Amino acid sequence: VFPGLRAQARSAYARRDWRLAAERARSVLKQSPGDRESLRLLARTIAREGKASDALDFYANLGPDGMEAEDLFLVGKCLLGQQHIEAGQNALTMALDRDPKHAESLNALVELGLKSKDLLEAAGRAERLAAIPSWEVRGSILLGKARMVLADHAKAAAAFERALRLDPELRGTDEAPITVRKNLVRSFLAVGKPTEARTQLERIGIGGNDPEVFWLLSRAMLQQRQVDAATKALERAGSFGRDHPETAEPALFVGSAKCTGCHTDICRSQKNSHHAQSIRTGDQLKEWALPPSPVKDPYNPDVTHTLAHEDGRVVLTSRVGDQTLRAFVDYVMGSGNRARTPVGRDESGAMRELRISYYSDAAPWDLTTGHTEKPEDSHAYLGMPQSADKVRRCLACHTTTTPSVAQATNAKTPPVGVSCERCHGPGGNHLDAIAVGFPVPAIGQPRLSTPEQVVQLCGQCHSPPNPVIAPTDPLAVRLQAATFPWSRCYTETKNGLSCITCHDPHKNVETARAANEAVCLACHTAAPPSSSSSATELASKPDRRHAASLPAGAKRVVCPVEPARDCIRCHMPVVTTPLGHAQRFTDHYIRVHRETTKPESNSASPTERVGSASDRVRREAADQSPNPTTETAATRN
Ligand code: HEC
Ligand code: HEC
Ligand code: HEC
Ligand code: HEC
Ligand code: HEC
Ligand code: HEC
Ligand code: HEC
After folding, report:
1. How far apart are alpha carbons 39 and 60 in whole angstroms?
2. pLDDT score, position 309
3. Residue 567 C-alpha to ligand 4 middle, in angstroms?
4. Does the C-beta of 48 come closer than 6 Å to ligand 4?
5. Which of 175, 168, 91 has the alpha carbon at shortest distance from 141?
6. Is 545 in the pocket of ligand 1 (CB under 6 A)?
7. pLDDT value, residue 361
8. CA–CA separation, 239 and 317 (whole Å)
9. Which label site among 69, 209, 258, 567 has the fewest CB atoms less than 10 Å from its CB?
10. What is the distance in A from the centroid of ligand 4 to the CA of 502?
11. Ligand 4: centre distance to CA 512 (Å)
């Protein structure tokens, strides 16, 4: 009976009949409680049934001996299910070490990589998955998705095409064929292949009433310069896309030089902004002013660093004791307004963020933020090793196109800093639209977006990739798009203000505080400013720029301490981070700072003045409003 039972358990598991497999494994264990194979099979079935904590307990008892790829995969899935992302990821990686072709592990890791933006790694793994029999379709779709986010649209198209060719129904995947085909259409449009895009649209079937199909058709026809047909298709697309006016178009990148002739003023100011200058590479590096003499390592007297121009390149030479190490700079990130950090390769070709950065203050050449003071390995005196994805992520936030590292270093046109097409999306369709008189500009229009959408757009770079950051984190102030939304000014006004209420995205920050304080006063005066239109009118205007507005009927709260000026100093103070140097930021979590707020010139003690003034305002508010401020204020204290 015994060997038969075990074989039955095994084959039930292979048929994915978890219940039967578990039952048979238990029967074996009744006769032979220590039978390792059955214990393991039982653990697997428990994990497969989704009982994560039971399965993990079971595996803990089993011990690490003889864990196969399948077990490590299941442990990884259970950990992920419990939100232990890093541990889960490690288990999945170990599963692949054990069996590089373990399809489910590859699949799970690619999905994680797509989420965490480890896209180069995800693409590599998806490529491997796409070569495993019966996983080709799924692997190709994932590969297409990774390539699409990498803006490698030609390769994305090839991957989506392969999936649809292998199985037009995409059986065994949880993808709808129409979604994948639409992605294929977008990839074709992004590389300027409207004919191929139209062929795919015809496969989907034009004539139904899917507005997205008509919208895509309008773009394909626009690229073919068939303006009448494109306009008709656009009409049939109805309101498609209007909910997200900032969305990037499926179009060719054309470069910001193309925009200058028509948007002269915006281009001029944008070009000189820190955004546009937040990277240097290629020939631009020749003009980088380097330290005139070797820099002593700030934490090790036996180490010196020399940065020098050599044959058109910038080279870092670090002397560590009697060792001489070299690295070649590929990019310098940061405009220099606060800092500049070089990223390059050591002599083995490995990418490193270099150890010495430039800072715009009294100690200009110093340890790069976040680096270990005393590295163990002498090569780490050149800088911290970076995965290709890490460097790609720097580029994604500091440049306009988001190419892979290999592409970026070999490209004929090196990446530029954050410019037009990073925020507005590629401009190819726009140039066609303007040329033929298409009814819409066919480019991202964040001007028409909701404040939430604008915060999200800016948050692509101005918030952490992982949104969990606490107000108590001393580094939170660097991430304005994470901290600003904590403000009650934002949460309690429903579309009342966003980043672009205070910032012109094409210029550097406005340092004249009165300009920003006018924004505060639009909401924080006893009566709406008489000259401008009423609050409700502002709120209903589609153009959100500079429109700070309270929702209709909201109560107007006035500062009890200083009702007319100087708001920023007290409510958005400049904060020095523990990072040292010029790393001071403006706290965008607009609130009352009891710890730092001091009236400027007043003989009464701060608390006295604050106390009496706020009592007065609260009383006034209570008189006017059926919903007195006193309550909210009291509960907050
Ligand atoms: C040939 C002139 C021309 C060129 C070149 C041009 N634009 Fe435009 N752009 C226009 C015109 C005209 C409009 C207004 C269209 C309308 O209102 O429908 C416009 C509108 C826009 C808008 C929408 C503004 C809004 O919110 O309503 C953006 C964004 C934009 N252009 C960005 C760009 C970028 C980026 C480039 C370079 C890639 C560029 N433009 C190149 C003429 C041009
Ligand atoms: C692609 C990434 C990216 C996006 C998207 C982005 N930013 Fe930035 N932003 C940066 C980087 C990088 C810097 C630092 C520039 C430097 O090196 O000094 C910066 C700097 C700034 C600054 C400081 C400028 C100064 O005077 O020094 C402001 C203000 C700003 N961004 C606002 C915005 C707003 C508002 C948006 C959304 C409309 C936005 N950013 C979207 C990457 C981005
Ligand atoms: C998620 C987007 C993002 C990534 C990834 C990113 N940066 Fe930045 N970086 C920014 C933004 C935004 C700023 C501007 C901060 C500010 O002024 O508020 C900035 C500023 C800087 C600065 C100027 C110093 C400062 O604090 O203003 C340097 C130097 C820099 N980054 C280097 C790098 C390097 C090197 C990498 C990769 C290892 C990298 N960044 C990755 C978004 C990013
Ligand atoms: C950091 C993101 C960012 C960058 C970079 C950027 N824009 Fe904008 N742009 C926006 C946002 C957000 C708005 C809407 C707010 C506004 O109009 O000020 C906007 C608005 C516009 C408008 C409409 C303005 C109007 O007055 O109608 C045009 C045109 C435009 N951008 C063109 C450009 C061009 C050209 C470039 C490159 C030189 C560029 N943008 C770079 C974010 C950006
Ligand atoms: C209520 C007005 C207001 C809003 C809304 C606002 N900012 Fe700011 N921001 C400021 C002020 C004021 C400064 C500091 C200007 C100075 O240096 O004097 C600033 C500075 C910055 C800087 C420079 C670095 C720093 O922290 O000093 C960045 C980057 C920035 N803002 C990004 C954003 C982004 C992104 C958003 C939207 C999520 C946003 N801001 C929303 C008022 C605002
Ligand atoms: C779009 C309208 C709007 C704008 C603009 C605005 N606020 Fe507010 N703010 C509000 C609302 C609404 C509340 C909540 C008031 C209440 O009910 O107590 C609030 C609350 C506050 C509070 C109290 C926060 C707390 O934690 O109790 C402070 C302080 C404040 N705002 C300061 C400012 C400053 C300073 C500015 C300009 C930099 C500003 N606000 C801009 C609407 C706005
Ligand atoms: C000298 C520092 C200082 C200045 C300047 C200042 N405030 Fe205040 N503000 C405070 C303090 C402190 C409180 C808390 C008072 C209390 O609750 O007793 C406060 C409270 C507030 C509140 C919340 C009131 C309530 O009842 O909930 C708002 C809104 C506000 N300030 C807005 C502003 C605006 C707008 C400006 C600029 C016109 C401004 N403040 C200027 C220190 C200041």
Report:
1. 12
2. 96
3. 28
4. no
5. 175
6. no
7. 87
8. 58
9. 209
10. 14
11. 21
Query: Residue 527 and residue 515: Cα distance in Å, rounded?
Result: 19
The residue to which tokens 């934002």 are assigned: 490
Residues in the chain: 637
443 lines ligand 1 (CB under 6 A): yes
Distance between CA 498 and CA 190 in Å, rounded?
A: 30
Is the CB of residue 358 less than 8 Å from the CB of residue 369? Answer: no
Residue 139 is encoded by which pair of tokens?
């692997």
CA atoms within 13 A on the CB side of 210: 13
Task: Single out the residue of 92, 138, 137, 83 nearest to residue 113, CA to CA.
Answer: 92
In the structure, what pLDDT confidence band is assigned to residue 353 with cuts at 50, 70 and 90? Answer: very high
CA of 437 to the centre of ligand 1 (A): 12
Can you tell me which atom of ligand 7 is nearest the CA of 520? 35
Query: Would you tell me how many other CB atoms lie within 10 Å of the CB of residue 412?
Result: 5
Is 339 close to ligand 3, i.e. is its CB under 6 Å away?
A: yes
Q: Is 595's pLDDT higher than 80?
A: no
Closest by CA position to 123, among listed 105, 139, 108:
139
535 is written with which tokens? 């609050």
Ligand found nearest the CA of 549: 6
**Nearest Cα to Cα of residue 147 among 103, 193, 186:** 186
Q: Is the CB of 254 under 6 A from ligand 1?
A: yes
Sign of CA dihedral 88, 89, 95, 98: negative
Token representation of residue 210: 């899917």
* Residue that the structure tokens 């590859």 belong to: 106
Q: Cα(99)–Cα(70) distance, rounded to whole angstroms?
A: 9
Pocket test residue of 256, 443, 454 for ligand 1, highest count of atoms within 8 A of CB: 443
Angle value at C-alpha 119, between 113 and 123, nearest 5 degrees: 95
CA angle 536, 540, 542 (to 5 degrees): 150
Q: Is the CB of 401 under 6 A from ligand 6?
A: no
What are the structure tokens assigned to 167, written together?
A: 């199985």
Per-residue pLDDT of 380-390, as tens digits, reads 999 999 999 99
> With 0-12 CB in 10 A as exposed, 13-18 as middle and 19+ as buried, what is 549?
buried
**Count of other CB atoms within 10 angstroms of residue 509:** 13
Given CA atoms 525, 527, 533, 534 in this order, what sign does their dihedral have?
positive
Tokens describing residue 275: 């955004």
| Ligand 7 atom with minimal separation from the 632 CA | 27
For the record, the structure tokens of 265 come out as: 């003023």
d(CA 137, CA 134): 7
